[in-house]
Predict the 3D structure of the following.
Amino acid sequence: MSAPERDGLRPRPAPDPAVVALVAAAVDAAWPRPTPPRADDAANPAHRAWRFSGRWWSRPVAVRRDRPWVG
C-alpha cells in the first residue's frame, strides 16, 4: 500500500478537457485588462503622479498620536 492510500487520500481523476477550457475561458473573461493611457493624461503630467500631501501618514508620528488628555 502506498503512502497516500494508507493516509486515506485517493488520487484525483484527470479533469475533463471541456471543463478545463470552460474554466480557462471564464478566468480570461473576468481578468482585468490594462487600459491604454488617455491623451489628456499625457498632456498633464501632474495627473500621473500620486501625491502624498495631505495624507494622514505624511505628518510626523508625534503629531499623529491621539492624545485624549490634551484639550
The chain is about 40% helix and 0% strand.
